[in-house]
């Protein structure tokens, strides 16, 4: 049975706004303990918010309630489409939906999202990684406009990223933190080159790179378990098959997605996959093992694309 998110309004999420100051109203999207927040761009004071009636005691409460309800309605409609089409809810797809529907010309996160899509020097798999940056900036909630790119706020973002945890409650690796900061630096410099940011907020900030976790190889027994495991969900079963193809061929994911029957050549009794790595343009030659050939034949040499 597929699971879908629930949504609700959240006022002053961090509960740190003074009573006489305006606080932001957001839509919380919750699925399997993972939460994301979408700004409604509406702010009111504490006495003007009611969890049941929403905005109250405000001269423009009818209009403002309409604005926040419109944001939540569009999100609920996106989730309902997933239900109606009986497909898995995807956070990546949701991020693209949010960026496409709530883009603000003054928003740094939205500008980053647009620049990612405009870049011709990034492959789709790399863009997917870069898209995590604008999503995290929106979750952080303190770097909204270009004017917010100050040394103090970039440092606060760095501290916030370091405190983030994985779904199982573990703090994310420092190497992952470094990746977020590396991407942020790239787009800050891009903005500076376009005179959108006047000074470098990274000046004087030292970001610890961290060390990647060591590889752990699968044992033959673990691979055998994957081979024989019955998986009822067709999508998960295809993902398992793609992973096994990578095990049998050693191909990177992007090269596996580029694999076709035209890249397979026969030499006597043996067959080989011959191609060029998409990332480096270096030629590779891989012996086609029987297990890999069986999976390719299962899909008629047409690799499922994910």
Note the topology:
Layout: E1 6-11, E2 23-31, E3 34-44, E4 49-50, E5 54-55, H1 61-84, H2 91-101, H3 108-118, H4 124-130, H5 132-140, H6 151-163, H7 174-193, H8 220-228, H9 234-249, H10 253-257, E6 264-267, E7 270-276, E8 283-287, H11 290-298
Helix pairs in contact: 3-5, 9-11
- Rg result: 24 Å
- The secondary-structure class comes to alpha+beta
Uncertain parts:
none
Instruction: Report, as a whole number of angstroms, the end-to-end distance.
Output: 21 Å
- The secondary-structure element order is EEEEEHHHHHHHHHHEEEH
User: Can you list the strand order of the major beta sheet?
Assistant: 1-2-3
Tell me about this structure:
With 306 residues, the protein is an alpha+beta fold. 44% of the residues lie in helices and 15% in strands. Helix 3 (108-118) runs antiparallel to helix 5 (132-140) and helix 9 (234-249) runs antiparallel to helix 11.
Structural features:
8 strands; about 300 residues; alpha+beta; three-stranded antiparallel beta sheet
């Amino acid at each position: 049975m597929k699971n879908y998110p629930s949504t609700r309004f959240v006022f002053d999420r961090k509960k740190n706004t003074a009573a006489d100051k305006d606080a932001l109203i957001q839509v919380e999207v919750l699925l399997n303990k993972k939460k994301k927040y979408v700004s409604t761009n509406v702010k009111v004071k504490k006495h003007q918010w009611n969890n049941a009636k929403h905005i109250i005691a405000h001269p423009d409460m009818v209009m403002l309630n309409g604005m926040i309800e419109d944001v939540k309605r569009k999100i609920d409609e996106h989730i309902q489409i997933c239900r109606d089409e009986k497909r898995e809810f995807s956070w990546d797809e949701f991020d693209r939906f949010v960026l496409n529907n709530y883009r603000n010309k003054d928003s740094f996160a939205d500008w980053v999202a647009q620049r990612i899509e405009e870049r011709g020097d990034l492959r789709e798999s790399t863009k997917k990684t870069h898209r995590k940056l604008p999503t995290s900036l929106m979750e952080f909630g303190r770097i909204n406009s270009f004017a917010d790119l100050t040394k103090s706020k970039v440092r606060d973002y760095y501290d916030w990223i370091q405190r983030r945890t994985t779904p199982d409650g573990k703090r994310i690796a420092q190497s992952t933190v470094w990746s977020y900061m590396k991407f942020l630096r790239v787009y800050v410099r891009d903005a500076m080159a376009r005179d959108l940011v006047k000074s470098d907020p990274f000046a004087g900030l030292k970001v610890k790179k961290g060390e990647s976790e060591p590889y752990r190889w699968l044992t033959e027994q673990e691979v055998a378990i994957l081979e024989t495991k019955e998986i009822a969900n067709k999508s998960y079963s295809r993902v398992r098959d793609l992973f096994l193809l990578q095990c049998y061929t050693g191909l990177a994911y992007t090269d596996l997605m580029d694999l076709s029957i035209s890249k397979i050549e026969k030499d006597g009794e043996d067959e080989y996959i011959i191609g060029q790595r998409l990332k480096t343009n270096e030629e590779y030659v891989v012996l086609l093992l029987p297990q890999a050939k069986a999976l390719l034949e299962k899909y008629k040499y047409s690799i499922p694309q994910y």
